[in-house]
Every structure is written in structure tokens, then in C-alpha cells.
Design goal:
single chain; mainly alpha; Penicillin binding protein transpeptidase fold; two-stranded antiparallel ribbon
């Protein structure tokens, strides 16, 4: 199944599909719903810190999400933020 998806869809489209259905906390599915639930705004309006906080919950969405104050979750979100600060992303990905 994976190779069929990769053959027919771009990586960007696969990521978009994933982010539209992945769990971001108990009963919160999709990045748009998570953005509105935890930050009260559209996903396109998230700043880098907020985006890192959402991304940090993906490995353990029921335990780690912006509604939880776990020290481990906060450290992981900070590490994501630091890695993105150091990354040199192509301009086309920043649009």
C-alpha cells in the first residue's frame, strides 16, 4: 500500500492527508481541529512555537498534547523547536 501511495501522490500530498486525520489528543483529529482546540486559531496562523507543540504530541497524542503540562512533553516540544531553528528549509516548503 505504501509504495502505491508514493507512486501516485507527492510527498507533500501524503503529509497533507496524514495531518488531516492524525490524532492530536483525545477526540481531536486533524491539524486544523487541533489548532482551533488548543490555540483558538486556524492552522495556517500558528507560530513556530505552537506548531512545535502540536508536532511534539504526535508520538503519544493521548498523553502529550498542548492541553497537558508534562515536563517530558515540554522538553520534546522545545527540542523540535530548536531543530527547526537550525534547519535550513527550502523556500518552497516555507510557503
Amino acid at each position: 500500500l505504501t509504495w502505491q501511495l508514493e507512486r501516485t501522490l507527492s510527498k507533500r500530498r501524503i503529509l497533507e492527508c496524514y495531518l488531516n486525520v492524525v490524532e492530536f489528543g483525545p477526540g481531536v483529529y486533524g491539524v486544523e481541529a487541533a489548532s482551533r482546540r488548543y490555540f483558538g486559531k486556524a492552522a495556517a496562523e500558528l507560530n513556530e512555537d505552537e506548531a512545535a507543540r502540536l508536532a511534539a504530541g504526535l508520538p503519544r497524542p493521548r498523553a502529550w498534547h498542548p492541553g497537558v503540562s508534562s515536563p517530558a512533553y515540554r522538553r520534546y516540544a522545545e527540542s523540535i523547536r530548536h531543530r527547526t531553528d537550525r534547519a535550513e528549509l527550502p523556500a518552497r516548503l516555507l510557503q
